[in-house]
Write a structure and sequence with these properties.
Mean pLDDT: 88
Distance between the termini: 68 Å
Structural class: alpha/beta
Number of helices: 26
Radius of gyration: 28 Å
Shape: globular
């Protein structure tokens, strides 16, 4: 007797319109297929697993109830949205997730009309969705719905509360879905997390209130102008009955929940019940991060982005450790911070929700009372650190470079203006790879360089990172910024005792007579390898490691300006406003007529892909650096030009320079 393979539902879903044609009884098996498909693909092609497994039922329910893409779904953050991508015409393309030239790991309107708003960072969904809803009201299209899906971890960001505060003022039909799974990436922290654990609401009361409201509207006994006053009275009455005040209703936003976020039938009913209510409302759903895949359910932080894994056994397929391999920069930071904390009780650590990612967890284990996870709140992290510094502590505030953009005002107003002694450690600086444009840490040097009173530095290798941390601790007179990349360092030997690297002093790594290459940070190691290639051709290239972007080593720059008419700058950041710009400004202001060629991230947003692929794309890899230096040195007027690159007839140095620079 033969058995027939059960026909797949998912393979016939090419758009939400296909989904909406299904009977409701088929949605639960569809959710099971969707969840398994995510597990299957991510087991081979790593991505963010746990969050998207937890939102499968919600994703199906939203696209089933709402007429997307005319109705808008704004995700916050994009870790939750893999199911959304699969259901919106990208099922086959999902296997290229986060790969070079494949689809992005985050919602992006340039990728799909169903991606209503970009979602790489947290806490922006309510503000963006509110703007969309108000726009629909102004266009006299109140029939178009807008939904903001925000994770509980993103509720620690101040922008979310700015959106909530504004939602009750302007005419809108916004629905906020609060996805409460007790997790961000690491464990959720703060008062809002505990509040969501404790909150309760009467389902009977919600239904009674809604039915009464609709009846009064039909009888013209209340109007939209009086709705806010009625709502406030209603909220006060409910607080009295339940003996509990509701934070969201304090913003004059109707609150419903909490409800089971994995009950697809109930979700659809709730969404249908409230979607046409006028005015802002919030549906609070409870979900399990990693739902349906046991290892991810039991170890949510570990399975947030687990890498490759065996989908059958749940074993993570971690890369085998090599003997004497270099440490991760983040671990070098973590261990050095513990060393400094052991020396001085004034040393404390601050991180916005990334203790494991930045290795602040080492300090948390060694000195739990001196390490602070403030949640997804970068601006608060800086100002909190400034407050600690104001009272004599020495905070090391570790923020991913791309997230540091969100605290620009606090660096100026709360730290630099007061000349406070704190150390800002910018992890994940430079091109970070598969997370793409929202996460590349390429703007920090250009953003921070104009701020008076900052010291900005970047290490060539792991010992330099330790030394710069020590310098920031011992010798800084104001905010001290250290930027370093994701991934492993360069050296395998012990890093030795920490020492001060005098601020504003670089160093000459290699003598040369033809071209001077000035680099900052670990990309200087790629420069060294490029120069090794050129030395084999009898070229002569000098290499200077600037170490400090601000203050710059003017003595070193004068030496370069006096000795060289050809200068190349190399940085793992945007070339607009960074090291290259600073060198050009110095040469111009001091009357040096050198030709300066800049290598760095071009003036555009760089896509996702491996770091190696992106370095090649931007002309920042070893081969491209060598080609640029060779072409510059080969221009007429140099005493000893390099040999030609090759005999290929299609080689044109000038065209390569134009493309790369």
């Amino acid at each position: 007797m033969s058995t027939c393979k059960q026909e797949s539902l998912l393979e016939h879903i090419n758009s939400p319109a296909d989904l909406r044609s299904l009977p409701t009884e088929q949605l639960e098996p569809l959710c099971a297929e969707l969840r398994q498909y995510i597990v299957n693909v991510l087991s081979e092609n790593p991505g963010h697993l746990g969050a998207s497994l937890g939102t499968v039922e919600l994703t199906v329910a939203l696209h089933y109830v709402f007429n997307t893409p005319d109705d808008r779904i704004v995700w916050d953050v994009g870790h939750q949205a893999y199911g959304h991508k699969i259901l919106t015409g990208r099922r086959e393309a999902f296997q290229t997730l986060r790969k070079f030239k494949g689809i992005s790991g985050f919602p992006n309107p340039e990728e799909s009309v169903y991606d209503a708003f970009i979602a790489g960072h947290a806490s922006n969904s309510i503000s963006a969705a509110l703007g969309m809803s108000v726009a629909f009201q102004l266009a006299d299209r109140p029939d178009r719905h807008v939904v903001a899906v925000i994770g509980d971890g993103a509720m620690t960001g101040g922008l979310a509360y700015e959106g909530l505060n504004n939602a009750s003022i302007n005419p809108n039909n916004l629905l906020i879905i609060l996805n409460d799974n007790d997790m961000t990436i690491d464990q959720s922290v703060g008062g809002i997390s505990q509040y969501l654990v404790n909150i309760t609401t009467s389902h009977t009361y919600n239904k009674l209130r809604y039915d009464l409201y609709r009846s009064l509207r039909r009888m013209n006994l209340i109007s939209e102008n009086r709705r806010e006053h009625i709502l406030r009275f209603s909220n006060s009455l409910k607080a009295l009955i339940n003996r509990q005040h509701n934070l969201f209703e304090g913003f004059s936003i109707r609150y419903f929940g909490p409800v089971n976020g994995h009950d697809i039938a109930d979700l659809i009913q709730k969404l249908n019940d409230i979607k046409d209510m006028q005015g802002p409302k919030l549906l609070h759903i409870k979900t399990t991060k990693g739902k349906g895949f046991k290892p991810a359910e039991t170890s949510a932080a570990e399975w947030h982005a687990p890498g490759r894994f065996n989908k059958d056994t749940g074993e993570r397929l971690l890369p085998k450790k090599q003997l004497n391999e270099p440490q991760l920069y983040q671990d070098v930071f973590g261990h050095a911070l513990v060393e400094l904390a052991e020396k001085d009780e004034r040393v404390v650590g601050v991180t916005p929700a990334m203790p494991m990612g930045c290795s602040m967890s080492f300090l948390m284990k060694a000195f739990p009372k001196r390490a602070f996870d403030v949640g997804i709140a970068e601006g608060h992290a800086v100002t909190f650190s400034a407050g600690l510094a104001r009272e004599g502590l020495i905070p090391f505030c570790n923020i991913y470079s791309s997230f540091m953009q969100r605290a620009f005002d606090q660096v100026i107003h709360d730290a630099a203006l007061q000349k406070l002694h704190l150390v800002l450690c910018l992890d994940r600086a430079g091109l970070v790879g598969e997370d793409g444009a929202t996460h590349h840490g390429v703007f920090d040097m250009a953003c921070l360089r104009p701020i008076p009173g900052l010291t900005i530095a970047s290490p060539l290798n792991e010992p330099d990172l330790r030394n710069l941390m020590y310098t920031g601790y011992r010798a800084a007179s104001g905010p001290f910024v250290i930027r370093y990349p994701r991934g492993r360092g360069e050296l395998t030997h012990r890093h030795g005792e920490m020492r001060i690297l005098p601020a504003g002093k670089g160093r000459k790594l290699r003598e040369g007579t033809q071209v001077a290459v000035l680099s900052i940070g670990p990309i200087g190691n790629a420069v060294a390898r490029a120069i090794d290639l050129l030395e084999a051709e009898s070229g002569s290239v000098a290499h200077y490691d600037m170490i400090y972007l601000k203050p710059m080593d003017e003595e070193l720059l004068h030496e370069v300006g006096q000795r060289f008419s050809r200068i190349v700058t190399v940085e793992d950041g945007v070339i607009t406003g960074g090291l290259g710009s600073a060198v050009m400004e110095f040469m111009s202001e001091n009357g040096y007529a050198a030709c300066v060629k800049r290598i760095g991230v071009p003036d555009r947003f760089v896509e996702h892909g491996s770091v190696r692929e992106l370095y090649r794309l931007c002309g920042m890899d070893v081969a491209a650096i060598a080609e640029t230096v060779r072409a510059l040195a080969s221009r007429p007027g140099n005493a000893a030009p390099f040999h030609e690159l090759s005999a290929r007839s299609d080689f044109a140095p000038s065209s390569i320079i134009n493309v790369l620079l």
